[in-house]
Amino acid sequence: MAQLRDPKSGCEWDLAQDFSTIAPYTIEEAYEVADAIERGDMRDLRDELGDLLLQVVFHARMAEEAGLFDFEDVARSIGDKMEARHPHIFGEEGGTMGETRWENLKEAERAEKGMVSALDGVALALPALMRAQKLQKRAARTGFDWPDPKGSQDKIIEEIEELNDASSQDDKVEEAGDLLFAAVNFVRAHGVSAEDALRAANSKFERRFRAMEEMSGEGFPDLSLQEQEDLWQAVKRGEKSA
């Protein structure tokens, strides 16, 4: 990376990059790692982990050029953080690491950084569903949460009605966001990760839709909605009997 970023003999593209332009690639590579794991492709996982590591090296190199920190600092920082977050392993406190203890340690870290709000530190670049769930979880730690799933269920019904009543496009966007946020709250109350659940639903839909296309051939778009629904049900029955 140092050679690629060399001002005299480096690559024009690599030299033109900065933290903000590389960030989208970093996020993309993290998702490709997750995709390889989901597919169970260990050879691909090896390659994707290399791609993700390159992103870390790229950011560290740019920081080193700016006199901020280098790769060694990055590695040392995460090592120190893991030791601090596992006092029962690296310290003398003993005990086990439950969720409450872990969150308390992270909360102490945020306080040391001068963060005041319970919502400080929830990354803006997270996928929207994941960020919604993290925001809700942080708020719940202060007591701002429904006592049971019924509250968020009623909120979903309320938001559906408000979306149906919305007139302008701006209002529809706002109410649609409120509806999705309420849905995340509802599944969170059931102990479900909204991001994981939707990813699984996406995979299931894609698998079933492709099976429908294969069953019907090129004429699928010409089928009536009822005929397409019949195919969908046939695919579902096939999955259950497999």
Mind sketching the topology for me?
Elements: H1 12-16, H2 19-39, H3 42-65, H4 71-85, H5 87-90, H6 99-112, H7 128-140, H8 149-165, H9 169-189, H10 194-216, H11 225-241
- The ordered H/E elements are HHHHHHHHHHH
The CATH homologous superfamily of the largest domain is named MazG-like
Q: Describe the biggest sheet?
A: none
| Range of strand content | under 5%
User: Can you tell me the CATH class of the largest domain?
Assistant: Mainly Alpha
Q: What's the architecture of the largest domain in CATH terms?
A: Orthogonal Bundle
Output mean pLDDT: 91
Number of domains: 2
Poorly predicted regions: none
Total count of helical runs of at least 4 residues: 11
- Share in helix: over 70%
Overall body shape? globular
Q: How far is it from the N-terminal to the C-terminal residue, by CA?
A: 50 Å
Number of strands: 0
